[in-house]
Amino acid sequence: MEKQTAALLAYVQAMVQNSKTDPAALDAVDGELRPLADALRSLSRDIGEMQGYAAALAAGDLAFVPRAQNALLMPMKTLHASINHLAWQAREVSKGNFDQSGFFLPELSDAFEAVIEELKRRDEALHREIVASGEKERAAREGTRLFMNMIQSISLGITIVDTQTHRILFSNEKANELLYAVSAECYDCPDDGSFSKTIAEYQGEEASRAWELTCARASRYYHINSHRIFWEGRPAYAHVIEDVSQQLLHTSALAKQAYRDELTHLYNRRYCLEQLADLLAGDGFFSICYFDVDNLKYVNDVFGHVEGDEYLKLISETVKRSIRSEDIFGRVGGDEFIVLFRSTPAFIAESKFSAISQTVRDYSHVVKPYDASISYGVLEIKGGDGMDVEELLRLVDEKMYEYKRANKPKPAGPSVR
């Protein structure tokens, strides 16, 4: 059951991290967990199709046809239909058919309907003027100006670049903010690192392409959609630039939370076992310390669960202050913890935990109405010797219980002062 649960957790983790999932990884899951495994396979397939659908829409592939029975796709199907309708309406407006209303999104609808009303008014005025004076060229310039005024107000950066001279022909206010208001040397771009230079010198083989521009130093991330167009009779690229920094930082924060214990803020069991598996697969050596908090149940029963939580925090903070920042320290159960010491022999880890154990006992005499203590076991392991995670945990758990039997910690009752 434990192996099957681990397989399910690993499969879910791969789904959360957008990694490629292998349906065969769940073949060994049976019994009561089999329906859950089948559901995860189905969910993984549906999520994969949803990601493919989203990628197709992001690339401008409005001809993409997904499976009808995938319920996860319903919001994107609605978006797809709305985009198709918007594209049709835009084509109608471009043909001079201004009898359009109900555009996609309330803000966009209001903006387009306002533009259409303005275009109607200007069209009628221009028509009278063109009939009177034959100034067709002026009408073309007026239409271009109206288009540029319209896209000045949107939140995406839009810039037009001549494909031959690499000269920027037009940028709205948001694009100017992104192109020129940020320090050029801050961007992880080719040559001199200039954001505007990278945009201006863009060359793409495809008619449309989505790509990314990042600045790791300033934690800024940009999603760019580039399209080949003709601008005032000359070949050009239209770049639509979106700052996605906040979305990516939020996603990163959620990923970090998935690896943290809520009470102690240490790494959780999932993260520790992943790191342990990596160390076992490597060619270096390390020491593992497995310890538990003595008499936690007694403290919970006598002093309450709030004090029990404080007891766990006291232990975790004491250990954290005593180990290196590069050591991996996590809570793997209710009162069970692991510390992984990279490139550290067992006698050093033993010495460190002997001192930690004494510190816990001495300090608890001062701040707690009971005696606090830990029981621990330490093993030194060479990576690459074929040992798996479960076997190692069993061995170090036995070491910990040898310590517990030898030291026989008494119930953590009130200390004798």
Strands in their spatial order, largest beta sheet: 2-1-5-4-3
Shape: elongated
Mean pLDDT value: 79
Number of strands: 9
| Structural class assignment | alpha+beta
Query: What is the helix/strand order?
Result: HHHHHEEHHEEEHHEHHEEHEH
- Tally the helices: 13
Distance between the termini: 48 Å
Estimate what percentage of residues fall within beta strands: 15-25%
| Weakly predicted, low-confidence segments | 187-193
The radius of gyration computed from the alpha-carbon positions, rounded to a whole number of angstroms, is 32 Å
Residue share in helices?
Answer: 40-55%
How does the major sheet shape up?
A: 5 strands, antiparallel
Brief sketch in words of this structure:
With 417 residues, the protein is of the alpha+beta class.
Which structural traits does this protein have?
about 50% helix; four-stranded antiparallel β-sheet; five-stranded antiparallel β-sheet; alpha+beta; about 425 residues; 13 helices
Characterize the structure shown:
With 417 residues, the chain is of the alpha+beta class. The chain is built from 13 helices and 9 strands. Strands 2-1-5-4-3 form a 5-stranded antiparallel sheet. Strands 7-8-6-9 form a 4-stranded antiparallel sheet, sandwiched between helices. Helix 4 packs antiparallel against helix 5 and helix 11 crosses helix 12. The longest helix has 28 residues. It starts with a helix and ends in a 10-residue tail after the last helix.
